Amino acid sequence: MKPVKIGLLGFGTVGQGTATVLARNAAEISRRAGCELIACKALVRNTDRELPAMLSHVELVTDPASILDDPEISVVVEAMGGDEPARDWLLRAVGNGKHVVTANKALIAQFGDEIFAAARKTGVDVAYEAAVAGGIPVIKAIREGLAGNRINWLAGIINGTSNFILTEMRDKGRDFADVLTEAQALGYAEADPTFDVEGIDAAHKLTILASIAFGVPLNFDAVYTEGISEISRDDTAFAEELGYRIKHLGMARKTEAGIELRVHPTLIPERRLIANVDGVMNAVLVHADAVGPTLYYGAGAGAEPTGSSVVADIVDVVRGANSARVPHLGFQFETLADTPMLAQSEVETAFYLRITAEDQPGVMADISRILASKEISIEAILQKEPDPGSTRVPIILLTRKIREGSMDSAIAEIESLATIHGKIMRIRVESLG
Amino acid sequence: MKPVKIGLLGFGTVGQGTATVLARNAAEISRRAGCELIACKALVRNTDRELPAMLSHVELVTDPASILDDPEISVVVEAMGGDEPARDWLLRAVGNGKHVVTANKALIAQFGDEIFAAARKTGVDVAYEAAVAGGIPVIKAIREGLAGNRINWLAGIINGTSNFILTEMRDKGRDFADVLTEAQALGYAEADPTFDVEGIDAAHKLTILASIAFGVPLNFDAVYTEGISEISRDDTAFAEELGYRIKHLGMARKTEAGIELRVHPTLIPERRLIANVDGVMNAVLVHADAVGPTLYYGAGAGAEPTGSSVVADIVDVVRGANSARVPHLGFQFETLADTPMLAQSEVETAFYLRITAEDQPGVMADISRILASKEISIEAILQKEPDPGSTRVPIILLTRKIREGSMDSAIAEIESLATIHGKIMRIRVESLG
A4-134+304-335 has which CATH code? Predict the structure, then answer.
């Protein structure tokens, strides 16, 4: 299939993130999509800028028409943000029969109904996975993965800035204003933080989530919105004392009487998984009638997480345009790789070891000597008293990462010591960081 | 579009779960899919059984040919489990040009390459979302939602039985054998629990996840598999002391040398979200180069969660067959509903109230009287000492659920008391249960 040419309206965080992902993962992406996807042009204010070598193939243009009216370009990525001229140009791309992918939540929440109507007329797709919860494929999960369900409600931590602030306030007993200043210095919050901390950004995203959950038109004006600027560190502390965490939640719920749409600070029982989503991370909890609760967690912003969603949308749009189905294993059959599978002895992990030993001097020295001889480092040791009347003690070790084959031989040597009883219990350790 | 007729091979948990979801949510599903989906026949051993009224439209048949060779049936759901005759019949359905949806992880992990080759020949889809992690749309997330990424590794809690057992061992200090017996009584574990507790079921699922993550053929034989039956309650306690939880994890990792595929008990730092996935719930954590970590959580088994994934697959398969795209808002445009949006005053939630009061007798009585007059019940109270030199105390209340309008008027009345200072801080409380 011939390469698909993509034009980017805007070449800031989202635009460059998208182009970077497309370029770096070009091979992987074409193995999945069945054709090459190339970011060929990007609209900028000023072409006089340095680009990373990986993006040198992207032609910088200052006239939107050179993307919007280029017949070679079949997919336009709207990566400018804001209402205008994003809306105008997006409609022009759609009018020209181009598929559009956007990360612009404000645009979809406010003008989505108009945009989708225009897209239906020209038969193009307008995809917006990146508009909600950044890199988390939650639009896809709700629109497609939960297609068999009636959705009862959903609750999302869908603004990283406010989640970062609330997390810091709780963890460090700090005040809102103090953390906001730090968040601005770290680049997590804008100079004018209103959109984030007053919940407007979250309301845009909630508007979109509610429409795809309940099958209703986009209704941004109906969202009740309350920010986090009034929350004090006393509130976070009292909430904790009561067994709760305060999160800035977007909630959409369908009741007999109608649909609730609201963004506000919320106390959540601390044992809920979503109460433990901290820092700038996002998560959306969806409660549906057949599947029950499902939760989707990941980065809610950033160049490449957003680019990840934009690229997934481009692949979908291109498949749709080609009437191509998702290949059975996600990759085109002829591109399946014969990557070797590693034997378990070649795998590297850290280890937990529980050793039953005689409670006598020299045992730990023997164990340490054997481990050292295999270049196994000890990370932590727990040594316990023997049970009353017993002369045996459990020794618990955490090691650093080591090839499993080395651990196997160390274990065999330790087990052969006269002071060691029975088999050593060995459990692998993964930090998953 | 004309209704799609579906034949079910097997009418146990998965088959009935699927038919129930299709019947109960028929309206919602056709709003999404753009056509009706009807479970018209189910293969059973014995037609002499009572069906719930909702499933009375399903014709029970005992001859597989009456489904496999029925030209009216375009989608076959394989809901039998096991290797044979599932494999044989699935291949026959595929050979007859029928799309197949299956929840059978053992079948896909062991015979998927053969099945997909047959499907490519006749140009049909074979979809298997329900084969991994039950109702969680994780196959879709990886195959499509992360299509722009190179996946580095994934780690999954993908067997509910073993996660239930490990959770109980940790929470209650119980032994493996003891909890297993309970799990069998509760129906969470089979009479022969080998597949679950020895990791074979998880290895089937991991095989599938690794193929769609890394683009390699299915390679069940390469999975290193270790069960949880050797884990003692001492191990769960020592792990906790060291800041870890023990989980039965399926891990697939791509390294320079090759691919690791392994299922084994694993210590995970307790602060990781996935370490807090408890009971029979499942979760898959995926680490990819562009998006970073994403996590997918939900029910890993059960009639309707599995049915949820089967139905999502049917919708996808039907869309693919019709070259239909996912509608912009997930529902066919002409079916968008004009469900009313509720005013915030109509919303019911529980509340946290922080009230600053004079430290004198009668204040709590006044507050309680006003709340009672609005039918607001108090769930918990925190009363604090005044700061040195101050006569003011914070009073923190948690209420039960109440209409927000009632709370608004209660707050106004309380704020008007002479003994109350300033504004009352009011934060909504959601249990998200």
Answer: 3.40.50.720
